[in-house]
Amino acid sequence: MLSRSEHIRELLKLYFIMGSVNCRLSPADTLLQAVNGGITLFQFREKGPGALSGAAAVDLARQLQGICRQRGIPFIVNDDIGLAEMLDADGVHVGQEDEPAAAIRRRLGADKIVGVSAHTLEEAQQAVSDGADYLGVGPVYPTSSKEDARAVQGTQVIEQLRRSGLSIPIVGIGGITADNVTPVIRAGADGISVISAVAQAPEITGAARHLLHKVITSGRT
Ligand code: TZP
Ligand code: MG
């Protein structure tokens, strides 16, 4: 049997993040096609201009969670711990501006997945001691999917975290495509998190399949 962190590493290989504003097709069709292409984890992130709120956001979350449940893909909620609790989601992902990971861990219990965005070694160490299961590190490359994204950091921070001895599962995020995924994995990430490379792809299933193949074959130096 896989250990908890080995299991998380597997889930992070192709972590698809999306909300209604990111989609070219309907969110449900987008997710179904992405699942068919082999995504390993899904995050519901209903954010940005034009995002749904209130009951409409909850309804969409339920619909997407249903697809994930049917296909055995864990369903993670971005930011909204209350929504995650209401839906009994598999976990949450929070940024540095959100509720501290230690409080979330206490609230959700040991079984749920808690992910934290980290941009520096200090933030990463804090997240580890707070009980995070994985770190999202980026933006690795320029992105247009997040308005308030931090400065682009390349693969440097991932390399720095690994050099410092941190072994927590890490997923790279920000502007990642099939053409630039290899350095992210070689820097020490266990997988990639993408919005547009899947949600905006002309052919979603094929794009996801290709990305997963790239992650798996990129290996470590
Ligand atoms: N956090 C850092 S970059 C980013 C988030 C949510 C957006 C990633 O989207 P894309 O389209 O894969 O660059
Ligand atoms: Mg957040």
Automatic annotation (TrEMBL):
Keyword Metal-binding: yes
NCBIfam families: thiE
Name under which the protein is recorded: Thiamine-phosphate synthase
Pathway: Cofactor biosynthesis; thiamine diphosphate biosynthesis; thiamine phosphate from 4-amino-2-methyl-5-diphosphomethylpyrimidine and 4-methyl-5-(2-phosphoethyl)-thiazole: step 1/1
Source domain of life: Bacteria
PANTHER family reported for this sequence: THIAMINE-PHOSPHATE PYROPHOSPHORYLASE, THIAMINE-PHOSPHATE SYNTHASE
Protein purpose: Condenses 4-methyl-5-(beta-hydroxyethyl)thiazole monophosphate (THZ-P) and 2-methyl-4-amino-5-hydroxymethyl pyrimidine pyrophosphate (HMP-PP) to form thiamine monophosphate (TMP).
One biological process term in Gene Ontology: thiamine biosynthetic process
Record field: catalytic activity: 2-[(2R,5Z)-2-carboxy-4-methylthiazol-5(2H)-ylidene]ethyl phosphate + 4-amino-2-methyl-5-(diphosphooxymethyl)pyrimidine + 2 H(+) = thiamine phosphate + CO2 + diphosphate; 2-(2-carboxy-4-methylthiazol-5-yl)ethyl phosphate + 4-amino-2-methyl-5-(diphosphooxymethyl)pyrimidine + 2 H(+) = thiamine phosphate + CO2 + diphosphate; 4-methyl-5-(2-phosphooxyethyl)-thiazole + 4-amino-2-methyl-5-(diphosphooxymethyl)pyrimidine + H(+) = thiamine phosphate + diphosphate
Gene3D superfamilies: Aldolase class I (3.20.20.70)
Similarity comment: Belongs to the thiamine-phosphate synthase family.
Record text on cofactor binding: Binds 1 Mg(2+) ion per subunit.
One Pfam family this sequence matches: TMP-TENI
Domain Thiamine phosphate synthase/TenI: 14-198
Binding site for 2-[(2R,5Z)-2-carboxy-4-methylthiazol-5(2H)-ylidene]ethyl phosphate: T143, S144, S145, G175, I195, S196
GO cellular component: a single term: cytoplasm
Residues that bind Mg(2+): D79, D98
Class in the EC hierarchy, top level: transferase
Cofactor: Mg(2+)
Spans traversing the lipid bilayer: none
Enzyme nomenclature, EC number: 2.5.1.3
GO molecular function: magnesium ion binding; thiamine-phosphate diphosphorylase activity
Alphabetical UniProt keywords: Magnesium, Metal-binding, Thiamine biosynthesis, Transferase
Sites where the protein binds 4-amino-2-methyl-5-(diphosphooxymethyl)pyrimidine: Q43, F44, R45, E46, K47, N78, S117, K146
